[in-house]
TrEMBL record, chain A:
One of its GO terms (molecular function) is monooxygenase activity. This is Cytochrome P450. InterPro entries: Cyt_P450, Cyt_P450_B, Cyt_P450_CS, Cyt_P450_sf. It comes from Polymorphobacter multimanifer. Keywords: Heme, Iron, Metal-binding, Monooxygenase, Oxidoreductase. Residues 1-11 have a biased composition (Polar residues). Belongs to the cytochrome P450 family. Residues 1-34 are annotated as: Disordered. The keyword Flavoprotein does not apply. Pfam families: p450.
From TrEMBL, chain B:
This is 2Fe-2S ferredoxin. Belongs to the adrenodoxin/putidaredoxin family. PROSITE patterns: 2FE2S_FER_2. Its cofactor is [2Fe-2S] cluster. CDD domains: fer2 (cd00207).
Length: 450, 106
């Protein structure tokens, strides 16, 4: 670990870090007064607003796919920047936007904690009255032993055993798609394939697989947005999920160990005595981790190829490019836009004084567009030189455990698509998820020519 | 310049020359040796350049750092011979070294 420079006593005054007690409901969100919320208007605002006037956590930017305008300004002008706007809602946080700085935080788990009780790994703290410990939101040594309990299911040799099953299912889903008709790719393909895979990993009844999707969506949904369950409703729904999984756990804990995730957790000494909230937390982690992410990379691929027709031509002409196209899609999409840490000590990052207790947000979606580390980062290039060098899986001990499974699912999907369809046409701009965490699509209407 | 022998899981051998000072993950990628991914670019921040160093070469390659150790702990099939290739720097002292590669990187 690099030695920290001495912290000067004349650093800038503390801003927005008075740590108000976060009392639900949060005060209303401060938003700029704009004539409308069209993407062009929002982008123009983000291009010119003072850096200190913008709350990048506001779902408005993300729902309209304009956050990148502001993140680029942060990278260039203020690579470690304190976001104070709306601090009464999120306590304020540091935005870290350059590749090198993100790498420094991600690989320093001694100084930057993931601990659930400090708020966890997302910009908005876990509900203090509903802390769900899960291994991604733990520090060593507990993190390590729990992660190792589930690691074997997504290890290389084990994945080889899934390949035939994934290919058969993918073929079945693709063969069932209508031709010459407009349909929602998110629902018919992205959700369908990821929910089937998740059900397999948990050995969960396939006919009830959409429950897994539902719980995944609930776990990351913003209780303040109209139409979403309230905080209390969300807790009730997740308790219901726990109950259903407890039934499976109770069946499997006394049975011969099997290779599904529930059995693995029930039989591993590191996880078999987890309290119920910790079991719930790890379920949420595995469900969201295996669902939201791959789902949105599946949709993202269709979107990016439509926006970059010469890349689509390249892929059709040379299906051997699927593997690098998959990595490029995961980079370009960055389905989880950020991970958050909490500083355990005073430290210096990018010349800024980070205080013990501060929230530090690593914007992977920005690091993936940092031209200091990636050549021509704003271009979608399916045969770029080192497509695997992206930060969508994170780095350090919390790096995505299911990354190889995700890549395998996407690779098989695109191989099977190329065998069947000359093109998948994007009909209109997709509806996006209003979230600074899950960068994704709610609906994407497409047509496969008859 | 050090001569490095990379041995794939299926025993295919690749002997390449790597300039002194360059790490052995780069040495593989730069010479199109399959079986090493190097996703993090050489920061010991992933474990996709996992390799096994023969007993005879362990001393010459030196000890693992804490961060390397932490990442290897999470890799598949870690043994006492496991290293991250990006943390081994080519030099005269390791001229002729053999690195065995695992079945898959994770």
């Amino acid at each position: 670990m690099a030695t920290q420079p001495e912290i000067s006593s004349t650093e800038e005054p503390p801003r927005g870090r008075t740590r108000p007690n976060m009392v639900w409901p949060f005060p209303p969100r401060e938003r700029p007064d704009l004539p409308d919320h069209e993407p062009a208007t929002l982008a123009e605002y983000l291009r010119t607003a003072p850096l200190d006037a913008v709350d990048i956590a506001d779902p408005l930017w993300w729902e309209n796919d304009v956050e990148g305008v502001f993140l680029k300004r942060l990278r260039d002008e203020a690579p470690v920047h304190f976001n104070e706007v709306n601090a009464a809602r999120h306590r304020g946080f540091w935005s870290v936007t350059r590749w090198e700085d993100i790498m420094a935080v991600d690989t320093n788990h001694q100084a930057y904690s993931s601990e659930a009780s400090l708020g966890g790994i997302t910009l908005f703290d876990m509900d203090p009255d509903f802390i769900m410990p899960m291994f991604i939101a733990m520090d060593p040594p507990k993190h390590d032993v729990q992660r190792k309990a589930v690691n074997p299911i997504v290890s290389g040799p084990n994945l080889a055993g899934f390949e035939t099953l994934i290919r058969e299912r993918t073929a079945e889903v693709l063969d069932g798609l209508p031709r010459g008709e407009v349909f929602d790719w998110v629902d018919r393909v992205s959700i369908e394939l990821t929910s089937r895979m998740l059900a397999t990993l948990f050995d969960w009844p396939q006919e009830q697989r959409r429950k897994l999707t539902y719980w995944s969506d609930i776990s990351t949904s913003d209780p303040e947005l109209p139409g979403n369950p309230s905080k209390e409703e969300r807790q009730t729904i997740l308790m219901g999920m726990l109950q259903e999984f407890m039934a499976l756990w109770n069946e499997r804990v006394n049975a011969e160990p099997k290779t599904d995730l529930v059995s693995m957790l029930a039989h591993n000494p590191a996880t078999r005595n987890m309290p119920p909230m910790e079991f719930m937390g790890n379920l949420v982690l595995l469900i969201v981790g295996g669902n939201d992410t791959t789902r949105n990379s599946i949709s993202g691929g269709v979107y990016f190829l439509n926006k970059n027709p010469t890349e689509y031509d390249k892929l059709r002409a040379n299906p051997a490019l699927v593997e690098s196209m998959v990595s490029e899609t995961i980079r370009y999409q960055t389905p989880l836009a950020h991970m958050r840490r909490t500083a355990l000590e005073d430290t210096i990052l990018g010349g800024k004084h980070i205080r013990k207790g501060d929230k530090v947000v690593m914007w992977y979606i920005s690091g993936n567009r940092d031209e200091r580390s990636i050549e021509d980062p704003d271009a979608f290039i399916i045969d770029r030189k080192r497509p695997r060098q992206h930060m969508s899986f994170g780095f350090g001990i919390h790096r995505c455990v299911g990354n190889r499974l995700a890549e395998l699912q996407l690779k098989i999907l695109w191989e099977e698509i190329l065998k069947r369809f000359d093109r998948i046409e994007l009909i209109e701009e997709p509806e996006r998820v209003p979230s600074a965490f899950v960068k994704g699509y709610k609906k994407m209407m497409v047509r496969i020519p008859a | 310049m050090a001569k490095i022998k990379y041995i794939e899981f299926d025993r295919t051998e690749h002997v390449v020359e790597v300039a002194n000072g360059e790490n052995l993950m780069e040495g593989a990628l730069g010479n199109n040796v399959p079986g090493i991914d190097g996703d993090c670019g050489g920061n010991a921040a992933c474990a996709t350049c996992h390799c096994y160093v023969g007993d005879d070469w362990l001393a010459a390659t030196g000890p693992r750092s804490d961060s390397e150790e932490a990442m290897l702990e999470l890799a598949d099939g870690m043994t006492a011979n496991s290293r991250l290739a990006c943390q081994i720097i080519a030099s005269d002292a390791i001229d002729g070294i053999e690195l065995r590669l695992p079945e898959t990187q994770h």
